[in-house]
Amino acid sequence: MPLVALEQFRSFAASTTNYLTTERIFPNTLEALIFLLGGGTPPTKADFTRIQLKLGQGNKPIWDVTGSQINSLNLYEGRPSAATVLILPFANPRASRDEDKNLGCIDFGSLGIRQLSIEMTLNGTPVTPTCTPFALIGQPKQYGDGDPRNMLFRALLPTPLVFSGAVTRQPQLLNTSPNGGALLRRLHFFGAVVTSFEYKRRSTSVYEDIGAVMNAAFLDEYGHDPQANIYTYDAVYDDVEQRAWPQIEPAGNTVAQVPQQFLLTTSGAATVNVIADLYASLDSL
Q: Could you tell me which of 21, 53, 61, 110 has the fewest CB atoms within 10 Å of its CB?
């Protein structure tokens, strides 16, 4: 698993969006992007107000998160959190099956895509900041030629929810990219007001109105580190990646979306930012 230096950002400064486009990873498989933060006043992860990743010539981001959000996701997964190292991981080294450890990696050779674009928006706090990018390169996926899992990669997509007051089991429309076969791994609800969550598929509850305290205890039992004021629904709680929920199913000679509902209970007014953690394909975004 070589760690290779990528091209530098065109420029890197505070109070702006910084851009980097690389073709150096092709035709290999990307396990993680790693950024070394430095400068007169090195930026913190919270200073990154938006991080977007895009593949090829497309304008649709496959990742759209803040630095604080990805740091919280990494801490939940038990990953290291050095102050001046920002990691954007695609692999899951804790996956129960060896072949699934890199299911979320971007296999540029299989996708036939050369270009990865990185956009990082930085607030005005850091002084003369620097950000040195690296890529952790892995082996091709182990599913065999033509397997559709070779086309999947980890995607992180946001949905902002605004509540004017407390709600009880209220359905929410979340950006889980159901078209084209995205698999639902996790949902992270950033907000102290979230008190319980329910997930229904074909009108049947598969996670039935579970309160925040019970949910955190359940996830802790399986070795995760639930973060304060973040409710995480985890379909792959035991790192069996095969548990990720398919969002389409066969329907005669075609496919159809699986009917599903996301029901949220909150204690009051707030904006709750949701990050959907998926295995997606370019067709599903």
A: 21
Taking alpha carbons only, the member of 183, 170, 267 closest to residue 209 is: 170
Any residues with CB less than 8 A from the CB of 49 and at least 6 apart, and which? 66, 67, 121, 122, 123
Calpha distance 237→257 (Å, rounded)? 24
CB-based contacts of 220-226 (< 8 A; 24+ apart in sequence) = 223/78, 223/94, 224/76, 224/77, 224/78, 225/75, 225/76, 225/77, 225/78, 226/76
Q: Is the pTM of this model over 0.85?
A: yes
Q: pLDDT, tens digit, for every residue of 162-220?
A: 999 999 999 999 999 988 789 999 999 999 999 999 999 999 999 999 999 999 999 99
Q: Respond yes or no on whether the N-terminal peptide bond of residue 93 is cis (omega within 30° of 0).
A: no
pLDDT in tens, 53-111: 999 988 899 999 999 999 999 999 999 889 999 999 999 999 999 989 999 999 999 99
Strand 29-41 to 106-107 pairing: antiparallel
pLDDT(112) > 90: yes
CA 27 – CA 29 distance, rounded (Å): 7
What are φ and ψ of residue 174, in 5° steps? -110, 150
Q: What fold does the segment set 3-151 form as a domain? A: Jelly Rolls (2.60.120)
Reported confidence tier of residue 273, pLDDT bands at 50, 70, 90: very high
Contact by Cβ (8 Å): 114, 20: no
CATH class of domain segment(s) 156-284 = mainly beta
Domain with CATH 2.60.120.730 in the chain: 3-151, 156-284
Q: Is the Cβ–Cβ distance between 238 and 222 less than 8 Å?
A: yes
